[in-house]
Design brief:
The complex is a heterotrimer of chains A (174), B (348) and C (441).
Chain A (H helix, E strand, L loop, with lengths): L1 H41 L7 H14 L3 H6 L15 H35 L3 E4 L2 E4 L1 H4 L1 H22 L11
Antiparallel strand pairs in A: 1-2
Chain B lengths: L14 E6 L7 H17 L4 E6 L10 H6 L5 E4 L23 H13 L10 H5 L3 E5 L6 E5 L7 H4 L3 E3 L3 H10 L2 E3 L3 H9 L5 E5 L14 E4 L9 E5 H6 L2 H35 L3 E4 L5 H24 L4 H14 L6 H4 L3
Parallel strand pairs in B: 1-2, 1-3, 6-7, 6-8, 9-11
Antiparallel strand pairs in B: 3-10, 4-10, 5-8, 5-9
Helix pairs in contact in B: 1-9, 3-11, 6-10, 10-11
Chain C lengths: L2 H17 L4 H17 L4 H5 L2 H6 L6 H14 L2 H12 L5 H15 L5 H18 L4 H13 L8 H10 L3 H34 L5 H9 L3 H23 L5 H18 L5 H34 L2 H7 L8 H18 L2 H18 L4 H15 L7 H10 L3 H25 L2 H10 L2
Helix pairs in contact in C: 1-2, 2-15, 5-8, 5-14, 5-15, 6-8, 6-13, 7-8, 7-9, 7-11, 8-9, 8-20, 9-11, 9-20, 9-21, 10-18, 10-19, 11-19, 11-21, 11-22, 13-14, 15-20, 17-18, 17-19, 17-21, 18-19, 19-21, 20-21
The chains are: A mainly alpha (174), B alpha/beta (348), C mainly alpha (441).
The structure holds sodium ion (2 copies).
InterPro entries (chain C): DctM (IPR010656), TRAP_DctM (IPR004681)
Subcellular location (chain C): Cell inner membrane
Protein name (chain C): C4-dicarboxylate ABC transporter permease
């Protein structure tokens, strides 16, 4: 468990980088829209392509890099009413099945979104804004990447539940 | 679609095709072209072909219809190539502004362009260059786009400069830039709210499409007699799926397409007439372009000419036959009874 | 396997996986994907699902979710609302029930600037729940108050749901907004009434536990000047948002960004901005945003399954024998929609059901505008019903209160609003059509 914790610390660093990318994007998005509103009202001219940039660049950057951090923060909802009533061994088996199912489904999502990203790259998918085209495909790669990080988190959770006696949905309980 | 649905050789097996659009079921292209087309195909094949329909983005969203057809998510769909200028850079040609046209002229020219055998580059026609993976059934374009405002009028050149209009496509942004109109980009669903509260002054829009977002209540000044292009669409199928269809089905589909093409275009005209009537009753003004101040007319017209050249250059820079394309489009528009500014008549 | 068998298997799976405690978004992902495999086979999936996560997130309209939450965080971290609740408590002379009424009313007020019930619920959850808890509300009731108050944004204009409906049915959005005003306020009144009943019941049970000392201690800390500054700051924020939207300076969507920015400025003026302030505000906002987005992506995938299974159509086909009785059809439709909104995210329900419902509504000669408002009310209620109640999850996410507990109270709010407001709307359609009619003349 100790060496796992060490590796997990590196992984936590990666997640922190992710949430900072998202945090800066979120703050940037706020400022960008505010500047757009001010320009439109003062100069009656908005940032050309403003809404396209917000939706295609700022939103994905604000959401996806943070997902792995969000996942391990314990904020994601589930109905724990029934699970808590089971005995520890049964609870443990259930959590095992859940985590494996989670990994399987996330694996599929990674595969599908990766294929989409690769095809986007091949076609150099772009979006029109302000009279020209801006590349979109680099952002597609954020998605398989962020879901892959959640798989890594789940592998840690799986490992923890093998080693530790107390079953849990989180690698590190708060 | 599913594997059991391939028609193959036998011609009496029922073929169920999955048809989709990201547009609402009430959109004219769906309700007055696609639906009649499907009904006609069912009728002509005595029910051998059946359609399962998905509208309003419940299966495929705008502008993913083309991809969905090619990757087999659906069998057939209304494809809107202008929304993907990165994939179909030459589709925007129908959005180029004109001196004169109407829904029928625009529609016929679009159909002629899709069927054109003029070789644009490396011996390839327009359709081969842009839509080679698709079986294309041309459908009517929209009515011509107009400029409508919530009240702002264009009495002098200074009225035009700095007016803020929503631009629905890349061509309109180029055009706005050329005439000094400030472009506002915004999703269509946000527009009603922003317009009604005066966030900006108007939009390029086709009158027949107003009701989709309730703009008939907002627009009070519309410029007619000058045309800001036609939005296009086609019913698309993958080339492979098309080849799987039995011959009698292929014939039925072609015939049905012939039959629904014109009524589909006329629906836009009917819709716009009703809306113009209603808008006039509510105090809306429709101003003929030729009645505007001479200098104002010149600003708009010069903008049209510049936009054509900008578009051609943009395509040439991508290695596409921009110059040949705009000449072909000009000739088709003129052939069908439309008109372009004089400056464009002489380009060679 | 035929569609009906597949639908039954998948619905059973949904319930089973929910009960065993799988994350909600994972339940939707898993059952949606398995359902699609059963219906269409595996090869169909990549083309259908590969672009789903990106398309769902890359939306301008959805910027309201992170930005309104960010505004709430800025306001919360600068202590403005906490002090405001204290003032109200003081004015109400210790009548704690006023705080609940205040929270729901603020939800309605915020609804007039926000289009998204989820975002408003999260904001309310952050600022109101700690105060409600201090004033002897149980955690589940406090959570339900915040969720219900926030869900009002779904029906009180501007409303994303009404916009989607207007687009799908070509009904003027402005008229829908006006029509939704009275029913929206009615939903609010019902929520307040239910809240008061719950509150009374709880006070009888838990009177002994009240901890009056902490309340008094806390109140001593607030000075008069501080109160003045805080009231001023709060009024300015609200004023800027309202005036900004209604004077056309910015759109309701942009109001999210402007609101967050003004909240940030207020915190700056109150001297609260430092690294910790920014870190906490941003991270908390991102947690909630990530959660909502994951569920929305899951709901979208599940919605694709529902759509391809023809479930809505099969439900509607069963209505055929009762078409002669419009009121009965409407009651059935509202129950079906209620169930759909329970399981599926609101926008997805609108998009998948309107094509099926519209022909029936037209045949029954029901006013499209009225029906839009009606659907909006049911959708709003769906935000607080299990298992997919985004408002409740938003509140649970920010407050740490278990969603099951909130749902149990939320369900009472929901059923009361469904019976009373929808019933009133069927009996007296004028409450939705009267305002738009009189305005258009
Ligand atoms: Na609202
Ligand atoms: Na629900």
């Amino acid at each position: 468990m100790r060496s796992a914790l060490k590796i997990y610390r590196v992984f936590e660093w990666i997640k922190l980088i992710g949430i900072w990318i998202s945090g800066i994007s979120l703050f940037g998005m706020m400022m960008f829209i505010v500047v757009d509103v001010v320009l439109r009202n003062v100069l009656s001219d908005s940032i050309n392509g403003g809404f396209e940039f917000v939706q295609n660049y700022f939103m994905p950057l604000a959401v996806f890099p943070a997902l792995a951090y969000v996942y391990s923060s314990g904020v994601l909802p589930r109905m724990d009413l029934v699970l808590d009533k089971f005995s520890v061994p049964i609870k443990r088996i259930l959590i095992f099945i859940m985590v494996l199912l989670e990994i399987f489904i996330l694996g599929l999502i990674v595969q599908f979104t990766w294929e989409y990203a690769v095809s986007g790259l091949e076609r150099e998918m772009s979006f029109p804004a302000a009279g020209s085209l801006y590349p979109l495909y680099p952002l597609f790669f954020l998605i398989p990447l962020s879901f892959a990080l959640i798989i890594v988190e789940n592998l840690f959770i799986l490992f923890r539940n093998i080693i530790e006696r107390k079953p849990s949905f989180l690698f590190k309980e708060k | 679609g599913g594997d059991e649905k391939a028609g193959g050789e036998s011609s009496d097996e029922t073929i169920t095709l999955r048809a989709a659009t990201g547009l609402s079921a009430q959109h004219g292209w769906w309700s007055d072209t696609m639906v009649p087309w499907m009904e006609k195909v069912e009728e002509l094949t005595d029910g051998q072909v059946q359609f399962e329909t998905y509208t309003g983005g419940e299966l495929v969203s705008v502008p993913d219809e083309g991809d969905a057809v090619l990757n087999g998510t659906v069998d057939i769909a209304l494809v809107l190539p202008i929304y993907q200028p990165d994939q179909f850079p030459m589709a925007e040609v129908t959005m180029l502004p004109l001196a004169h046209s109407d829904t029928l002229i625009g529609s016929n020219a679009w159909k002629a362009l899709l069927n054109s055998d003029v070789e644009l580059k490396d011996g390839q026609t327009y359709q081969e260059m842009m839509f080679t993976d698709f079986k294309v059934f041309p459908v009517s374009t929209t009515q011509e786009y107009s400029i409508s405002t919530t009240g702002k009028e264009f009495d002098s050149v200074s009225d035009v400069k700095g007016t803020s209009l929503r631009t629905p496509s890349r061509i309109h942004e180029v055009y706005s830039d050329n005439v000094g109109i400030n472009s506002v980009t915004m999703p269509a669903v946000e527009m009603y709210d922003a317009l009604s509260r005066g966030s900006f002054e108007g939009s390029y829009y086709s009158i027949a499409d107003w009701s989709g977002y309730g703009f008939q209540d907002l627009f009070r000044y519309t410029l007619t007699g000058i045309n800001f292009g036609h939005f296009n669409s086609f019913i698309g199928m993958s080339q492979q799926k098309w080849e799987d269809m039995p011959e009698n089905v292929q014939e039925a589909m072609e015939q049905a397409n012939e039959e629904v093409f014109k009524p589909g275009a006329e629906e836009w005209i009917n819709r716009s007439e009703e809306l113009i009537e209603q808008n006039k009753e509510d105090g809306g003004k429709f101003v003929e372009f030729s009645s505007l101040d001479q200098e104002v007319q010149e600003v708009f017209t010069t903008g049209i000419e510049d936009t054509w050249m900008n578009y051609a250059n943009m395509l040439e820079e991508q290695g596409l036959p921009g110059n040949k394309l705009i000449k072909l489009w000009r000739d088709l528009i003129v052939e069908e009874g439309g008109d372009v500014p004089d400056g464009l008549k002489n380009i060679e | 396997m035929d569609n009906v068998t597949i639908i039954i298997i998948i619905l059973a799976m949904v319930i089973l996986l929910l009960l065993t405690g799988l994350y909600i978004h994972s339940v939707l992902f898993a059952t949606g994907i398995i359902g699609l495999i059963l219906l269409e086979g595996f090869s169909f999936l990549p083309g259908l699902l590969g672009n789903e996560p990106f398309d769902r997130v890359a939306s301008y309209t959805l910027t309201t979710i992170p930005l309104f939450v960010l505004m709430a965080q800025f306001i919360l971290q600068s202590g403005i609302v906490k002090d405001l609740f204290y003032i109200v408590h003081k004015v109400a002379k210790g009548k704690n029930s006023v705080l609940g009424i205040l929270t729901i009313s603020i939800g309605g007020l915020l609804g007039a600037v926000s289009g998204s019930g989820t975002a408003t619920s999260a904001s309310l959850g952050q600022v109101a729940i700690p105060e409600l808890r201090k004033h002897r509300y149980s955690s589940r009731l406090a959570g339900a108050i915040a969720a219900a108050g926030g869900s009002l944004s779904g029906i009180i204009p501007p409303s994303i749901i009404l916009i989607l409906y207007g687009v799908a049915t070509e009904t003027p959005v402005g008229q829908l907004f006006i029509g939704a005003l009275i029913p929206g306020v009615l939903v609010m009144i019902v929520f307040i009434a239910i809240m008061l009943i719950y509150y009374r019941m709880e006070q009888k049970e838990t009177y002994e536990e009240a901890d009056k000392d902490s309340l008094i201690q806390q109140s001593d800390k607030v000075t008069f000047i501080r109160l003045f500054v805080v009231s001023l700051a709060a009024s300015i924020i609200v004023l800027i948002i309202f005036v900004g939207i209604y004077a056309g300076i910015f759109t309701p969507t942009e109001a999210g960004a402007v609101g967050a920015f003004v909240g940030f400025l207020a915190a700056l003026c109150l001297g609260k901005v430092n690294f910790e302030f920014l870190k906490v505000s941003l991270v908390e906002t991102l947690k909630l945003t990530g959660m909502v987005m994951l569920i929305m992506i899951g709901a979208q995938i599940f919605g694709r399954f529902v759509s391809l299974s023809m479930l809505p159509r099969q439900l509607i086909a069963m209505l055929d024998p009762i078409m002669g009785m419009p009121a009965l059809v409407l009651i059935v439709i509202s129950l079906v929609l209620f169930v759909m909104f329970m399981f599926i995210e609101g926008a997805a329900v609108i998009l998948m059901s309107i094509p099926v419902l519209l022909p029936i509504i037209t045949e029954l000669q029901i006013d499209l505008l009225w029906f839009g408002v009606f659907v909006g009310v049911i959708c709003t209620i769906g935000l607080i019903t299990p298992p997919v109640g985004l408002s409740v999850y938003a509140v649970a996410g920010v407050s740490g209160i278990k969603s099951d507990a909130i749902f149990r109270v939320g369900m009472a709010f929901a059923i009361a609003a469904l019976v009373i407001v929808c019933g009133t709307m069927i009996a007296f359609p004028e409450i939705a059509t009267f305002l738009p009619d009189s305005m258009s003349q």
